[in-house]
Every structure is written in structure tokens, then in C-alpha cells.
Design goal:
Strand content of chain A: 5-15%
Order of helices and strands of chain B: EEHEEEH
Strand order of the largest sheet of chain B: 2-1-5-3-4
Strand content of chain B: 15-25%
Distance between the termini of chain B: 38 Å
Bound molecules: iron/sulfur cluster
Shape of chain B: globular
Strand order of the largest sheet of chain A: 2-1-6-3-4-5
Radius of gyration of chain B: 14 Å
Radius of gyration of chain A: 22 Å
Largest sheet of chain B: 5 strands, mixed
Oligomer: heterodimer
Shape of chain A: globular
Chain lengths: 587, 128
């Protein structure tokens, strides 16, 4: 197993055996450990001292279902704190198959307008991966939909690609890291936190993997691994949310649009209401029905990456049946829809595709546009205006650069007070005033406002079972702590977070996840270790953030949410600072 | 006897019960009921078998989940908005943790195993 270091200062690389101390780490556990150990917390995120780390999860690359996930980590240009952003792609599985447990990009190439690419191949003679550099300058300033086919043409069909778009070249706070999807499109993202800009700042444009000949992930105990894998498959195939033709496979994550809208928790027109009159037209049900009409048949969703049996990724089609965009996730649909007062799926899909092409995070983009719509730059509901603003970002105009800085930056530029962000990261699609538990997670997560920071997992391993009343603020804080730790474990395991839907309700699935990890690593973890392993990751991230100046004072929800009641429930966010502080104080 | 008007939203497959108000993936119906009518009465009026509905909201407050329907006797008020979801919808716990619920559902969750800390209450019911 290998740790690869690429030094962009002098365009050299070292392939090192994985240090023993990192043997049991993967995914987020790996990226956060390396960033915390090696990146000075006060360094400039776009300077030479930041490092960009990629790590496949523990079971990534194995036949474990729904596990082709990779963590990207660095100090975030958006939050100034540590960042892990997770993506699903064959790129993740290929990196794991080449037995690369961590890829660390260090230093910074000279700013001479040139961009480099890395090409990783398996060196059969040496029995280890090898790094080659190539000139990627021709792809600078180009749409990723234009660049990807050229990379495939150069390196062949069997490769996988990660990279940054124009947004990452400009150094935007809302630049994501892109990966290929199964149809070779640039549509899968480690979207959040501006990691695309960390990549761009190093003068690095693409990392191409040619996995051919690589040995695959070694499994220490095959029988145990298989036992775990079967339990996980059974859980995913039977649970109503994750089974074939279940909620996610039929409607995708956008199934949540109508639900949150009815709950009064769908942030609308820059978080000024919890209900959007046009929501139903943009929901997962509308995507399914609309595709049926336009294609003349039912269309179920596809996998973002090899080996996923949940298959939640949708595709929206144009009236003539051609593809408009893949994938319209709940958060993208909301950010560019309800949050901007836009109810046209066609326009939302256009914007999703533009973001994918420019290398922008859809959530941050929509949250930013919502703020400047309120500032009067364009009116709410003006989808053509919103499309133009995304083009401004892509062109790097002065206005585009303000928007590219993200929600908080654009809010400052326009003197706005209703700025939905925590630690500088724009808030996703769940209103904290209507869903207070998620507000606690937004406030306290080491990542800034992050909807994937706290997934619910079996109560008995949260350390709160029976003790805490989930209806009290203290109980909610305790649960959020448990959720965040469990999530850090899943992000380390290499499974997509969506397995949590099934394993919360089907206990054998949870055992399966731990058995898969033990099978690969030879560890003897039990489900009781999930919280401990996850809490270790959180402690590491928290310590980095504190040293970077993001202490508990930054674990707060924006002031307007404490004072402005949100229709239709007319509630404010009323969880006390003490309850928020208890999340990490008692970790 | 006076009447109440309920603003009904039916999602996904349930839109077929929309009494002509279907709009593809949803239906929005105005239901006129006797004062004192319950969710059970509304379902009967719409001819929706209760087992066909899952997540349910009354005026933005969660009132039922698949496999957990303590709202059948909940009395509706004039002007209420009632929303019924098909069984292929979802609302994971972490995204509803702290959201408004009707009293009957809050009590049912509190009394159930793990205080309702699950995603589904149907097939994988541990709450019965
Ligand atoms: S569940 Fe969805 S997001 Fe997760 S791996 Fe599968 S297709 Fe990708």
C-alpha cells in the first residue's frame, strides 16, 4: 500500500510505502489526519504550504456495495478551516485498485500561466504505481465538457479523471473538484469548500488514472469481508429508501423537495420563507413524471460510480428527449430553484450543467445568487438573469469574481445581513429554524454549514440511547454529536453516506459495514468502535480548526435566524449557545 | 352544520386521487368537509386507503410516517393544509430532527423504541 507525494514546486514525486500509523485510516480519516499533521493551520489556503490530499475509503475498490467514494481534503479557501469533501466516481475505485491509500499534492508550480496534469499508471516491473507529469495548459480556461473528451482521447477509454475547472483556476471559494461519471462526463464533484481552487493554486489541472494491470485492494480476511458485504447488500436491497425502484432509485435525492416544502423547511428566496409555491414543479416526483412524458417511458436512476446498488443519480431530459443535465440533486435543485425563486426544471438543469462545466459548487452558487438577488442585482425568479450570473463567474468578470468568492463574500460585497452561511460556507437546503437538529449540525460541524456532516445511525452506538430526549435542545445537541462521529466513520469507510438510511433501520447492515472494514484491514472493530473511530477524526479536525482561529465562537447560526421568524411556522432558531457548545465540549 | 375547507396536496402516485385536479406529479384539491372531520374522514372523502399514504403533514406539522399513523382521529380545522405522500418518499431522521410534529405523533415517537430514531417505521418496524 502506497502514499504518493507530488511536489509541484519542482514537479517531482515520491511513492512511499504507507506509514504504519496510517494503516487503519481511509477516506476522511486519512485526509484529515494528513492535513492536520502536515498543513500549518494559519497558512494561506491558496499558498504553497497548503496540501491537497486524496484518499479512497477503507473498502473502496473492493466488491463492497456503494463504496466507490473518495475524500479530498485540504485547508479550505472558503472556511479557512479543515475540509473534507466526498465524491463518488470510478476515479475513487481506480486509485484504490492501484493500492494508493493517499495522494498528497504539495507545493506550488511557478505561476507562468501553465497548468500541469498528473498521470498515474501501474508500473508492473516495479510492482508499484508511477507518476508522470503532462502539460495540461491547453485545457486552461476551457469548459470541462470540452476538456474531458480530449483527455479521454489522449489517454484512452479506460482512464478516470479528477480535476478543477475554470473556477479552480480563478481561485474561487466555490470551486469544486470534478470527477468523471460512468458516461465520462464531468459531473461528479467533491463540491464543497473551494478545494478546486486549492488544486488550481498548485498549477494542477487534472489527475488521470490508468489502472490497467494494477493489483486491486488486498483483503486480509476474505470470509469475513464477504459475510459483511452480503449483510450490507441485503440491507440496501430491502430498505424502502435504498432498494431497487425505492425512493432514491425512483426519485433521486430531489424526492426531498416536496417533503421539506410541506414541512415549511425548504429555504425560499434567500432563506426568507420555508415554503415555495413552485416547489412541486421542481421536485423529484416532477423529474420522474417529466422524464416519462419526454421519453415515453419510465426512467429509473443510475449509479454515479461502479458497484453502487442504490443508484440515486437522475438525469433530466429536454423536451426532445436529449439529455439536459445529470445529475439534478436535491441540493442543486433547491439552491438554483426555490432559493432563487425559480420553478423551471429546464432552467435549473441548465444551471447545474453550467456549474459542472465551469467547476462550480452548485450549493454555494445557488446560495450566493440568492443573496445577490435579495441585494437587487437581479430579481428573484429571474432564471435567465441567474444563468447570466453563472456565466459571469465562468468568464471571471469583476462581478463573477465577487460571486465566485461564495455566499459570505458576496454578502459582504453587497452589504447584506441575511447571509446564510456558517464559517463562511453557504447553507444547504434545510432551514435551521424549521429543522432545529440540522441547525445544530450546521453550526458545529468542523466543515461549516454542511448537510452531510451528521447522518443518523443506530441509537445504541450514539452513546445517547434512552438517556437523551431528542425533543430537548440538550438532547438534540447530544444526538448531533453522535451523528457527526458516525458520519466521520462512514466517510472513512469509503461507503456512500446513503447506506446510512438502510443501516439505521436494519442492524445487520451496520454489522456488515464493520465486518467489511475488518475484512480489509484485519482489525477487530465492533459496531461499538464506530463512535470512537469517528470521534477521533472529529477531534483531529476540531484541533486544526481551533489552531486556524475557528473556535467555538464560530459554532453559531447567522444572527438573522435568531431574530427573524421564518414563515410558515414563524419560528426562530432558539437553541442556546450552551447547547451548541456542548456538542464538542462533550465529545 | 358548518363546513370546513381543507387545502389538500397529493404527491406522486397519490395524485390519481385528486378528483380531476392532477397536475402530473401532484394534485392540489380543495376538500369541503363537515366541521369536526378528522384525517380519517378526509382520507375516506378522497377514497385513499390509509395504507397507501406515507409521510403526512397537517399545516406543516408531521402527522404520520409509513407504518406509523397516529393521526387518523386528528381533527382538522378550517383552512388547514393537508399533504399526503406516496410510499416511495422519504424524510431521513437527521433532516427532520426538531421539525414540528402533531402532538399525537410526537407522543407515539416518544413511546416507541429508540424514541422514534429511525428512518422508516414500516417493514423494518422496531417501534410497534
Ligand atoms: S447512492 Fe447515489 S450518490 Fe451514493 S454512490 Fe450510489 S449513486 Fe452515488
Amino acid at each position: 500500500m502506497w502514499l504518493i507525494r507530488v511536489n509541484m514546486n519542482d514537479l517531482t514525486s515520491r511513492v512511499e510505502p504507507l506509514p504504519d500509523a496510517y494503516k487503519h485510516l481511509g477516506g476522511r480519516g486519512m485526509t484529515s489526519t494528513i492535513v492536520a499533521k502536515e498543513v500549518p493551520p494559519l497558512c494561506h489556503p491558496l499558498g504553497p504550504n497548503n496540501k491537497l490530499v486524496f484518499a479512497p475509503g477503507i473498502v473502496t475498490g473492493t466488491p463492497a456495495p456503494t463504496s466507490a467514494r473518495v475524500s479530498a481534503g485540504a485547508k479550505s479557501p472558503l472556511t479557512g478551516g479543515i475540509k473534507e469533501s466526498n465524491g463518488g466516481s470510478s476515479w475513487a475505485a481506480d486509485l484504490a485498485d492501484m493500492q494508493v491509500r493517499a495522494l498528497v499534492v504539495e507545493g506550488q508550480a511557478k505561476k507562468n500561466g501553465k497548468f500541469r496534469g498528473l498521470h498515474l499508471v501501474w508500473d508492473a516491473a516495479a510492482g508499484q504505481p508511477k507518476v508522470e507529469f503532462f502539460d495540461a495548459s491547453e485545457h486552461a480556461g476551457k469548459d470541462l465538457f470540452e476538456a474531458f473528451p480530449k483527455i479521454y482521447a489522449k489517454f484512452g477509454d479506460k482512464i478516470s479523471i479528477s480535476g478543477c475547472g475554470i473556477a479552480g483556476e480563478y481561485g474561487y471559494g466555490n470551486a469544486g473538484i470534478v470527477y468523471n461519471d460512468p458516461a465520462k462526463r464531468p459531473t461528479r464533484y467533491s463540491g464543497r469548500g473551494g478545494l478546486g481552487s486549492v488544486m488550481g493554486s498548485k498549477g494542477l489541472k487534472f489527475i488521470v488514472l490508468s489502472r490497467e494491470g494494477s493489483p486491486g485492494v488486498p483483503i486480509t480476511d476474505e470470509a469475513l469481508f464477504d459475510q459483511g458485504r452480503k449483510k450490507m447488500i441485503d440491507a440496501l436491497r430491502t430498505h424502502a429508501v435504498t432498494k431497487p425502484k425505492g425512493a432514491l432509485n425512483t426519485y433521486g435525492t430531489a424526492v426531498l423537495i416536496n417533503i421539506l416544502n410541506e414541512a415549511g423547511g425548504l429555504p425560499t428566496r434567500n432563506f426568507s420563507s420555508g415554503r415555495f409555491e413552485g416547489a412541486a414543479k421542481t421536485a423529484g416526483e416532477a423529474i420522474f413524471e417529466g422524464n416519462k412524458q419526454r421519453l415515453g417511458k419510465e426512467l429509473y436512476n443510475h449509479a454515479c460510480s461502479p458497484g453502487c446498488i442504490i443508484q440515486c443519480s437522475n438525469t433530466w431530459h429536454n423536451p426532445d428527449g436529449t439529455e439536459a443535465a445529470s445529475c439534478v440533486e436535491y441540493e442543486s435543485d433547491w439552491a438554483l430553484g426555490a432559493n432563487c425563486g425559480i420553478d423551471s426544471l429546464d432552467d435549473i438543469a441548465t444551471m447545474v450543467k453550467l456549474c459542472n462545466g465551469y467547476g462550480l459548487d452548485t450549493i454555494e452558487t445557488g446560495a450566493t445568487i440568492g443573496v445577490v438577488m435579495e441585494a437587487g442585482v437581479i430579481p428573484f425568479g429571474d432564471s435567465q438573469g441567474a444563468i447570466n450570473l453563472i456565466h459571469e463567474m465562468g468568464k471571471g468578470t469583476p462581478l463573477g469574481r465577487i460571486l465566485g468568492g461564495g455566499t459570505a463574500f458576496a454578502g459582504k460585497a453587497y452589504g447584506m445581513t441575511r447571509v446564510p452561511a456558517v464559517k463562511g460556507q453557504g447553507m444547504p437546503a434545510y432551514e435551521p429554524r424549521a429543522v432545529k437538529g440540522i441547525g445544530i449540525t450546521y453550526a458545529t460541524s468542523t466543515m461549516g454549514a454542511d448537510h452531510t456532516a451528521g447522518y443518523t445511525i443506530a441509537p445504541e452506538i450514539l452513546g445517547v440511547s434512552g438517556k437523551q430526549d431528542p425533543l430537548t435542545p440538550e438532547g438534540k445537541a447530544a444526538l448531533s454529536r453522535g451523528f457527526q462521529a458516525a458520519t466521520a466513520f462512514i466517510d472513512t469507510s469509503g461507503h456512500c453516506l446513503f447506506i446510512a438510511f438502510a443501516v439505521l433501520d436494519i442492524a445487520s447492515g451496520l454489522e456488515g459495514m464493520v465486518e467489511e472494514c475488518n475484512g480489509v484491514l484485519g482489525t477487530q472493530w465492533t459496531t461499538a468502535d464506530i463512535g470512537r473511530v469517528g470521534a477521533d477524526v472529529l477531534q483531529t479536525e476540531r484541533a486544526f480548526n481551533e489552531a486556524a482561529g475557528l473556535g467555538k465562537e464560530t459554532d453559531r447560526i447567522p444572527e438573522f435566524m435568531l431574530t427573524e421568524p421564518l414563515p410558515p411556522h414563524n419560528q426562530v432558531f432558539d437553541v442556546s449557545d450552551e447547547a451548541l457548545d456542548s456538542v464538542y465540549a462533550e465529545l | 352544520m358548518s363546513e370546513i375547507v381543507v387545502d389538500v396536496w397529493l404527491y406522486g402516485g397519490l395524485s390519481k386521487y385528486g378528483r380531476g385536479a392532477e397536475q402530473g406529479s401532484f394534485a392540489n384539491v380543495e376538500a369541503r368537509l363537515r366541521e369536526g372531520s378528522t384525517i380519517g374522514d378526509l382520507l375516506a372523502f378522497l377514497k385513499i386507503p390509509s395504507w397507501e399514504r406515507g409521510i403526512t403533514f397537517i399545516d406543516g406539522q408531521l402527522s404520520a410516517m409509513p407504518g406509523l399513523q397516529p393521526d387518523m382521529d386528528h381533527i382538522l380545522s378550517d383552512g388547514d393544509r393537508a399533504a399526503f405522500f406516496h410510499l416511495n418518499s422519504m424524510w431521513p431522521f437527521q433532516y427532520r430532527h426538531g421539525a414540528a410534529m402533531i402532538r399525537e405523533l410526537a407522543e407515539a415517537m416518544q413511546a416507541g423504541k429508540d424514541r422514534g430514531l429511525h428512518h422508516s417505521y414500516g417493514e423494518h418496524e422496531s417501534n410497534a
